């Protein structure tokens, strides 16, 4: 099912631990911020991203780095469902600064596992995603 | 000047990136959370922890790990000024979970640098600390 | 100039700080390992990835996560030049475990900056890449 | 049993991910480097720091930050056993740069757990420590 359904927004700040030389956010940290946003989506619904051994793992990422986030900046991560399948979900996640400038975006394919085997996304997760 | 003056509280959550095997927060991450709390203290006053090349560096830490923080948990970092000197400041930082259980505490000695030399804490920082 | 020219290999181990719940390497850490491999390529030639304000920034990543790396595992990062242009370079980086199983691969587009402006890759860097 | 018994040395390099603004190593990363050194001590003896649910957790740290490590620098972590008890071990860990300058040192108290309960250090670990 292809779509672009808004899922959540989540804010955080760029701290010392996130920047490298020059006060610029280290590139892989944008992936961390996006993961926090995905987890927070579950927590905000009083759910956990791990339920009865079901959880998601990252399978594929296509990421674009537009502008650097800087030390002290507040950023917003917007998350959208892009494609929903029986065992996987593709999200579009976009990071903006407070002026609305897009700093980073990515398509991320997540696959559902039960223990360590690919599994159908359980009903509990479907309800959380609202699909 | 010895004291125990409340400085700030700051909350954050334990995400995937913070835990290691067993879903327990990796030990050095508590130091990161405390650093975020210190930076946020400046940001919350529309100031920056770096001003005119002045900033603080960590000189000494005495830390106690009481109980582990777990994946998904929300924690609060309380920060107190313990000792204030002309070129350094000692803080006491304590991390609690939502039930008020103390997970971690430390005394941290921070030294003021201008560029890379030890310097008197400038007036701008004194005002932020309220000392 | 399209090609697939071997650039370097680099090994490291998966430590506590790299894994999350379940003893599985956190997804964004693969990007860190690849970055270490790129920096090490410069260091191994007695050069630095930062020269006279010239350095590279990540512009685009297409990454595939095949199998998880586990706590304690030694991994090898193989780096190849895929495309070389005047202001940018595309690398292919592949992470294998000790049995030769491919765990992760990515195409990464790096753009050369001087200070914060896009710039032609300087001769010093061209010589290091051997192109 | 008080002593100062040499346990291991371990080398690593300071990469982009380790430094913050100014090209200086982020303070909590020294703890990570020391943890890598402790794990590597087990791996170098074909053992794992996790055996039959036994492992160590950090209980107390007293750390001194003498000089900053910089981007690209190679550092050596020397580890010594300082005190050995039935359920805990105190190590002294010291980080030097290639010129032998001490950048960081700490006393670290580690407690042995089986699952999540304090336990006597098992024979397998005693043999690895050589005590």
What do these coordinates show?
The structure is a homotetramer of 131-residue chains. Chain A has one domain (2-129): Thiol Ester Dehydrase, Chain A. In chain A, strands 1, 4, 5, 6, 7 and 8 form a 6-stranded antiparallel sheet that branches. In chain A, β2 (19-20) and β3 form a beta hairpin. Chain A starts with a strand and ends with a helix. The first copy, chain A, has 131 residues and is of the alpha+beta class. The mean pLDDT of chain A is 95. Chain A has helices at 29-43, 123-129, and strands at 2-13, 19-20, 24-25, 54-65, 74-84, 88-97, 102-114, 117-118. Chain A binds chain C through residues 21, 24, 27-29, 31-32, 35, 50, 57-65, 68, and chain C through 21, 24, 27-29, 31-32, 35, 50, 57-65, 68. β4 of chain B pairs antiparallel with β4 of chain D.
Which key phrases capture this entry?
homotetramer; 131 residues; alpha+beta; Thiol Ester Dehydrase, Chain A; 6-stranded antiparallel β-sheet; 2 helices
């Amino acid at each position: 099912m292809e779509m672009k359904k808004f899922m959540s927004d989540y804010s955080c700040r760029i701290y010392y631990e996130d920047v490298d030389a020059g006060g610029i956010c280290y590139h892989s940290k944008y992936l961390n911020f996006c993961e926090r946003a995905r987890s927070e989506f579950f927590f905000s619904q009083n759910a956990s991203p791990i339920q009865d051994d079901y959880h998601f793992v990252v399978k594929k990422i296509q990421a674009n780095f537009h502008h650097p986030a800087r030390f002290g900046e507040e950023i917003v991560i917007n998350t959208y469902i892009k494609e929903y399948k029986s065992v996987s979900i593709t999200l579009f996640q976009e990071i903006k600064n407070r002026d609305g400038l897009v700093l980073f975006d990515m398509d991320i394919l997540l696959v559902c596992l039960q223990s360590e085997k690919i599994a159908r996304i359980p009903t509990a997760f479907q309800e959380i995603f609202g699909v």
